[in-house]
Amino acid sequence: MMSIINTSDVEITTFFLVGMPGLEYAHIWISIPICSMYIFAILGNCTILLVIKTEPSLHEPMYYFLSMLAMSDMGLSFSSLPTMWRIFLFNAPEISANACFAQEFFIHGFAAVESSVLLIMSFDRFLAIHSPLRYSSILTPIRVVKIGIVISLKSVLLVLPFPFTLRSLKYCNKSQLSHSYCLHQDVMKLACSDNRIDVIYGFFGVLWVMVDFMLIAVSYFLILKTVLGIASRKEQLKALNTCVSHICAVIIFYLPIINLSIVHRFVRHVSPLFNVLMANVLLLVPPMMNPIVYCVKTRQIRVRVVAKLCQKQM
């Protein structure tokens, strides 16, 4: 399967991705649900973006941030789509080193954007519940745009060193990756030169994402504290109900990341199939589920989506 003989004197320039270990014979059938999930994710997020753009009543900070979430979800989907389709549809697992480094840059970059957007959305929910009268004056459209720019720049700068540090390493003994797409922590393990810088910076990147998660937890602690101070139980439930969609999005996004990080760094022996499944869940499930969650749990979105569908049928 390997195009280059594994010797310490020959540098590897091609990596090999994996599909479902032990289920290679069924890849063509596995491609059906995988392709369906990509289609649902892309159509769902496009629908969210279209509805928010065409409905003036949804031109509010909460829905602008939801648009950012939809765009980051689409970015994640398009970043992993080429290699997933090549593996499962055409049984072509090879990928050049430069293409691999580029893919991991985009995957980690859009994941960092999504993490930051989820953090800002938790702050948005806290502000809406804690200071509803000042909400619109604090989160003006100009400030929302500036927040979006800062999130994008922060995410790019965070992952920008990844492809360069990986390219500086020498790969001479192994070329088999353990996922269906390229990840920084997966590629750096194949290096036969000193990769301590990548290990340290990779840990810093994960730590940065975990800081986002902890700040989200702090935001919800403050939200809960504010809600408990509301006298009316009905108003308490109404306030908490505005957070349900976001809580679901946070769980869907962070749970696979935490599990995958723990497996990569602390678990020595794990089933290759489990590893691949968890990694695929990380990139396939959040982009597909977020539009569904927000359409089901957010009345304003649901009503507009149904209205658009009815107009098309007429």
From TrEMBL:
Residues 44-294 form the G-protein coupled receptors family 1 profile domain. One of its GO terms (molecular function) is olfactory receptor activity. GO terms for cellular component: plasma membrane. Keywords: Cell membrane, G-protein coupled receptor, Membrane, Olfaction, Receptor, Sensory transduction, Transducer, Transmembrane, Transmembrane helix. One of its GO terms (biological process) is cellular response to lipid. Pfam families: 7tm_4 (PF13853). The keyword Transmembrane helix applies. It is found in: Cell membrane; Membrane. It is a multi-pass membrane protein. Belongs to the G-protein coupled receptor 1 family. Putative odorant or sperm cell receptor. This is Olfactory receptor. The lineage of its organism: Eukaryota, Metazoa, Chordata, Craniata, Vertebrata.
